[in-house]
Amino acid sequence: MRLAHITPLQVQEYLKTNDMILIPIGSLENHGRHMPLGTDTLIPDRILTLLEERIGPEELMIAPTLPYGSTDFLESFPGSISLGNELLVQVLERICLSLFADGFRKFIILNGHGGNTVPIDSVSLTLHKKGARCLCLNWWTMAGELNPAWKGGHGGGEETAAILAVNPDLVDQNHLHEGQQLINDYGEALPTTGFQTLSFQGATIRAARPTASHSGNGWVGPDAPDTATIEWGEAMLSAMADYIRDLLPLVKDLPPFEF
Ligand SMILES: [Zn+2]
Predict the structure, then answer these.
(1) In angstroms, what is the span from residue 16 Cα to ligand 1's centroid?
(2) pLDDT of 259
(3) To bridge 26 with a disulfide, which of 4, 40, 106, 224 should be the other Cys (CB 3.0-4.6 Å)?
């Protein structure tokens, strides 16, 4: 059931038997030159469409997707927009506390973007302290755990496969075969090995800095975008929808959180 499509009375009716709500959150940010800026929103939305084919409307309330997230590192790429961590905590907390006041007690955050994880954790702590429960589903990490062949960086094979499954027209074939463009912005003695990481004498040093300084096109592996297939994307997003379908009854029956 979609919160945006029902009346206040229908919300009250739902809450008589179910106090669980799912809040999807994404980001508007660079994922390489081949991918749409809305990748982190488009993928959770597709998983939810598949989920709705698997459950009845009374089994889950779904809030509107929050299309912006915290992505300060990628903000310097054209079109990327960041709320930053503090503002995202405020926005998400206000959303959750409004729903808490209505009677919702089990919150499931379906997250499409790694940078949102710390702000979500902060809101989760607030909700647990009030006796509610909050679970965060980072779909791209979980998909890689369900099947290690699906694991795939930022804008790499995993997310590209997912967007191909959403709509192949959203992937720009002219840039699909571009390699990872890592730049040694700290000099050759401290080579860049990935987003925010350098290498020295075989050990990794973390250097959090604007991604555009050390990545020319803003995607990072392990799997290259052109390894992605529609079949991979469809199987992966279906598996995530199945997973959430199986999880829902367990979460619904959890007692109030106490500590
Ligand atoms: Zn992403």
Answers:
(1) 36
(2) 82
(3) 40
> What is the Å distance from ligand 1's center to 29 Cα?
8
- Ligand 1 centre from 254 Cα, in Å? 31
Q: Is the pLDDT of residue 96 over 90?
A: yes
- Ligand 1 geometric centre to CA of 56 (Å): 29
Domain that residue 48 falls in:
3-152+230-252
Give the chain's domain count.
Answer: 1
For residue 39, the CA-to-ligand 1 centroid distance in Å is 6
How many angstroms separate the alpha carbon of residue 179 from the centre of ligand 1? 17
Q: What is the mean pLDDT of residues 153-169?
A: 97
In a domain, 64, yes or no: yes
User: Does the pLDDT at position 112 exceed 90?
Assistant: yes
Distance, CA 256 to ligand 1 centroid (Å)?
Answer: 33
Asked, for residue 213, whether it belongs to a domain, the answer is: no
| Residue 196 placed within a domain | no
Residue 252 alpha carbon to ligand 1 centre in Å: 29
Could you tell me if residue 166 is inside a domain? no
What pLDDT is recorded for position 76?
94
Single-letter residue type at 175? H
pTM for the structure as a whole: 0.96
Distance 112 CA to ligand 1 centre (A): 6
